[in-house]
Design a protein that fits this description.
Number of helices: 8
Organism: Salarias fasciatus
Disulfide bonds: 36-100, 49-110, 80-90, 203-213, 282-346, 295-356, 326-336, 397-461, 443-453
EC number: 1.4.3.13
Number of domains: 5
Distance between the termini: 60 Å
Subcellular location: Secreted, Extracellular space
Helix content: under 10%
Largest sheet: 7 strands, mixed
Radius of gyration: 29 Å
Oligomer: single chain
Strand content: 25-35%
Main location: secreted
C-alpha cells in the first residue's frame, strides 16, 4: 500500500488563491478528483501539505471555498492521525465511495515554508495521464561521430520497460516543437521525410511534454500499425549556449529576461527588465505555459517546472508582472497578457521561478568526487585526454582553488551550490588517482564546466602531492546576501567627529592613514555616515566559515568578530580609482529583525552564535562605530560610493553578482547627496554604463 501511496499525486487548485493554498485534488486511476470535507481536520491538512512539500498546514477550508472541482470525489470521511506519509494511508470510506457533492470540496492552507531538500514529483504530472509516454529521446540517424547535444534523429518514446518509435503519418511541425522543447531546444526545423507503439500524435504546439498531446496507441499484436509511413524524425535548433563554442559564451540577457539564484543551468528566479532596471514576477497564476515562454526566450527548451513561493530565493527591488497568462507560442513574456503589480498584491515571498529543459551535454561524465563522507563532498577528479587520445582520471592542483571554482565544479557534478572550495584534501585520501592534470584553474563562477574556465596550458603545481588536490563540499541550498540600497540613500549624512571619540575606531583601522599624523585628541575627522541593512534572500543561513574558537574579541566594542573582512567601504572617482581609502569592516553578524513568521536565530550577545537567517537582516545603524567612510582628505566633487559584502567570497552564496552596491555621490565640501543607489546587478548594462559615466548627475532614476 505504501509504495502505491507514495506515487499518489496531489495538487492544489481553484481560484482565487496563493501558491500554498487551494482545493485538494488527487490523481487516482488516471483522473483527477477532489476530497469531501466531511470529518476533515487539521491532521488531514498536515499530511496533505507535507505531501506537497510544505512543512505543515496552518488551516483547512470547507464548502468549496476555492470553487467547485470537476470529476470524481475520490475520498470522503478521511481521518488522519497526522503522521501518515500519504493521505492514502488514512482511514476513509475508500476510493470513490462518497455521498458528497462538489459543494463540499475540501481545501488546505499550508505554511509557506518548504521541507528542506524536498524534490517535487515533476509538475507536469498534473497535466499528464498515467497510461502515456514517460520519456522521449532522439536516436541519431547519421552514423557520424556523435557530438553532443544530439539535435536531430528518430523520435523514440519510453513506455514501461522499452523504447518504441512513432509513426510519422500526420506528424506536424507542432509535434516537433513539443519534442524539441522537452529535449532542451527552443526552436525546431522542418524536415524532409525520409512494430510502432504510438500510432499518431496531435500536439497543439504549446504542450510541455509529448504525453500531454492527444496520442493514438497501436493495439497489441496488430500488424500494419503505420501503413505507408516511416518512423517520425525531428530536427531541433539549439539555443546559443549549445551551438559549437557556445558554452564559452555568456548567456545574453539582451532579451529583457534573466534567471537568478539557481544552482543549475536553466533554472532560477525569473527577472524582467523595464526602464533600465530589473524586477521580479509575482507567482499568481504562474504556470508551465508562461514558464516555457521564458525558457525558450533564453535559448532553453520548454519548462520542466513552474515554481512558486520564491523557491529560488527572493528578489529585491520592483515586482513588475502578475497573473501572466501565456498561450505558450509567444516570443517573449512581455507579449503575454499580465497585470501590473500594486504593493498590496504581491511580495517577494511570491517571486516566480522556472526549471527549464536543457539539452543533454554529458558534462557530468568528465568529473567525479571521491573519499567524502556524503555524495556531496570529496576530492575532485577530472577526465583528461593525453596527446595519444588515451583518457585518464587525474587531480586538480589546489593552490588557486576558491569558492568560485567550486561553484562551477558543483554545478557540473549536478550537486547544487558550492558550500566550500578546499585547497587540500589529505583527509579524503581514498583513491589510487595521484597525478595532477589541471592547475591554475580560474573561473568567473558562471561557467557550466571546469573545461570552460582558464587554466595553465601545462600543469604547474608547487605542491604536487595528492593531499594538496582540490576538493568541494556541495549543497542543494545556499545563502544570498543583498544590501538594502534605498536605506543607504535615505540615511547618508556628514559628521565632523572629535578625535577623542575615535580611539576605538582607530584601533580597528576604521580611519584613513592620515589620522595617525593628527594631533590626538584635538581636532576631528570628517565622516560620511549611513546605515547598512543586509538581507539574506537565499535558501540557507549565512554563517561565518571560522569556528567560534578562532573568533577575535574586540575589547573596545565588547564583542567577537567572526569574519576578518565582512564589507569593503570605498569612495571612487569616475575612472574607478579610490579617493577615500575606505576600510575593510569586520562586524559581529546577527539577526536584527526578520520577515513575518521567521524567527531570529543569531545574536552577538553572550558569545552567541553568529550568522544571518534566511528571511532576516542585520542592521548596522549610521550611529555605530566604523559605519562610515573617512572623507577628511577628499576634495569636493562627484564620486561613486561602493559597498561590497563578503568581498573575498569567504562564505559561499548562490549569487555574488548582487554583493556590491553603488551610489552616485555629490560632495560640495559641506554637504553630501546620494542618488541612484542600486545593487550591482539591478540595472541594465546600458543604464550601468551611463551611471558610471556621469557620477554627479542628480537624476532620480536611470532609464534606458
Amino acid at each position: 500500500v505504501e509504495v502505491a501511496s507514495q506515487r499518489l499525486k496531489v495538487r492544489l487548485a481553484g481560484y482565487p488563491r496563493k501558491h500554498n493554498e487551494g482545493r485538494v485534488e488527487l490523481f487516482h486511476q488516471g483522473e483527477w478528483g477532489t476530497v469531501c470535507d466531511d470529518d476533515f481536520s487539521i491532521s488531514n491538512a498536515h499530511v496533505l501539505c507535507r505531501q506537497l512539500g510544505f512543512v505543515e498546514a496552518t488551516g483547512w477550508t470547507h464548502s468549496a471555498k476555492y470553487g467547485k472541482g470537476l470529476g470524481r470525489i475520490w475520498l470522503d470521511n478521511v481521518q488522519c492521525g497526522g503522521g501518515e506519509k500519504s493521505i492514502a494511508l488514512c482511514k476513509s470510506r475508500g476510493w470513490g465511495n462518497s455521498d458528497c457533492t462538489h459543494d463540499e470540496d475540501a481545501g488546505v492552507v499550508c505554511k509557506d515554508e518548504r521541507i528542506p531538500g524536498f524534490v517535487d514529483s515533476n509538475v507536469i504530472d498534473a497535466h499528464v495521464s498515467e497510461n502515456k509516454v514517460e520519456e522521449v529521446r532522439l536516436r541519431p540517424v547519421a552514423a557520424t561521430k556523435r557530438k553532443l547535444p544530439v539535435t536531430e534523429g528518430v523520435v523514440e518514446v519510453k513506455h514501461r520497460d522499452g523504447w518504441a518509435q512513432v509513426c510519422d503519418l500526420g506528424w506536424s511541425i507542432k509535434n516537433t516543437r513539443v519534442v524539441c522543447g522537452m529535449l532542451g531546444f527552443p526552436h525546431e526545423r522542418r524536415r524532409q521525410k525520409n512494430f510502432f507503439y504510438v500510432h499518431s500524435v496531435a500536439c497543439s504546439g504549446t504542450e510541455v511534454h509529448l504525453a500531454a498531446c492527444p496520442l493514438e496507441f497501436s493495439r497489441p499484436n496488430s500488424t500494419g500499425a503505420c501503413p505507408g509511413g516511416a518512423p517520425a524524425a525531428v530536427s531541433c535548433v539549439p539555443g546559443p549556449l549549445f551551438t559549437p563554442g557556445g558554452l564559452k559564451k555568456k548567456l545574453k540577457t539582451s532579451s529583457g529576461v534573466r534567471l537568478k539564484g539557481g544552482a543549475r543551468l536553466g533554472e532560477g528566479r525569473v527577472e524582467v527588465l523595464r526602464g533600465g532596471e530589473w524586477g521580479t514576477v509575482c507567482d499568481d497564476r504562474w504556470n508551465l505555459q508562461a514558464a516555457s515562454v521564458v525558457c525558450r526566450e533564453l535559448g532553453f527548451g520548454s519548462a520542466k517546472e513552474a515554481l512558486t513561493g520564491a523557491r529560488m530565493g527572493q528578489g529585491m527591488g520592483p515586482i513588475y508582472l502578475s497573473e501572466v497568462r501565456c498561450l505558450g507560442t509567444e516570443r517573449s513574456i512581455w507579449n503575454c497578457p499580465f497585470r501590473n503589480v500594486s504593493s498590496e498584491d504581491c511580495q517577494h515571498l511570491e517571486d516566480a521561478a522556472v526549471r527549464c529543459n536543457v539539452p543533454y551535454m554529458g558534462l557530468e561524465n568528465t568529473i567525479r568526487i571521491t573519499g567524502g563522507r556524503t555524495r556531496y563532498e570529496g576530492r575532485l577528479e577530472v577526465l583528461s585526454t593525453d596527446p595519444n587520445g588515451t583518457q585518464t582520471w587525474g587531480l586538480i592542483c589546489g593552490e588557486t582553488w576558491t569558492t568560485m571554482e567550486a561553484m562551477v565544479a558543483c554545478r557540473q557534478l549536478g550537486l547544487g551550490y558550492a558550500n566550500q572550495g578546499l585547497k587540500e584534501t589529505w583527509y579524503w585520501d581514498s583513491s589510487n588517482v595521484t597525478d595532477m592534470v589541471l592547475s591554475g584553474v580560474r573561473c568567473s563562477g558562471t561557467e557550466m564546466s571546469l573545461s570552460q574556465c582558464q587554466h595553465h596550458p601545462t600543469v604547474s603545481c608547487q605542491k604536487a602531492a595528492a593531499k594538496f588536490a582540490a576538493g568541494v563540499i556541495c549543497s542543494e541550498t545556499a545563502s544570498d546576501l543583498v544590501l538594502n540600497a534605498s536605506l543607504v540613500q535615505q540615511t547618508v549624512y556628514i559628521e565632523d567627529r572629535p578625535l577623542h571619540m575615535l580611539y576605538c575606531a582607530a584601533e580597528e583601522d576604521c580611519l584613513s592613514k592620515s589620522a595617525a599624523k593628527a594631533n590626538w585628541p584635538y581636532g576631528h575627522r570628517r565622516l560620511l555616515r549611513f546605515s547598512s541593512q543586509i538581507h539574506n534572500i537565499g535558501r540557507a543561513d549565512f554563517k561565518p566559515k571560522a569556528g567560534r574558537h578562532s573568533w577575535v574579541w574586540h575589547a573596545c566594542h565588547g564583542h567577537y568578530h567572526s569574519m576578518d573582512i565582512f564589507t569593503h567601504y570605498d569612495l571612487l572617482n569616475a575612472n574607478g580609482t579610490k579617493v577615500a581609502e575606505g576600510h575593510k569592516a569586520s562586524f559581529c553578524l546577527e539577526d536584527t529583525d526578520c520577515h513575518e513568521g521567521v524567527s531570529k536565530r543569531y545574536e552577538c550577545a553572550n558569545f552567541g552564535d553568529q550568522g544571518i537567517t534566511v528571511g532576516c537582516w542585520d542592521l548596522y545603524r549610521h550611529d555605530i562605530d566604523c559605519q562610515w567612510i573617512d572623507i577628511t582628505d577628499v576634495k569636493p566633487g562627484n564620486y561613486i560610493m561602493q559597498i561590497v559584502i563578503n568581498p573575498n567570497q569567504e562564505v559561499a552564496e548562490s549569487d555574488f553578482t548582487n554583493n556590491a552596491m553603488k551610489c552616485n555621490c555629490k560632495y560640495d565640501g559641506h554637504r553630501v547627496w546620494f542618488h541612484n543607489c542600486h545593487i550591482g546587478d539591478a540595472f541594465s548594462e546600458e543604464a550601468e554604463r551611463r551611471f558610471e559615466k556621469y557620477p554627479g548627475q542628480l537624476n532620480n532614476r536611470i532609464s534606458s
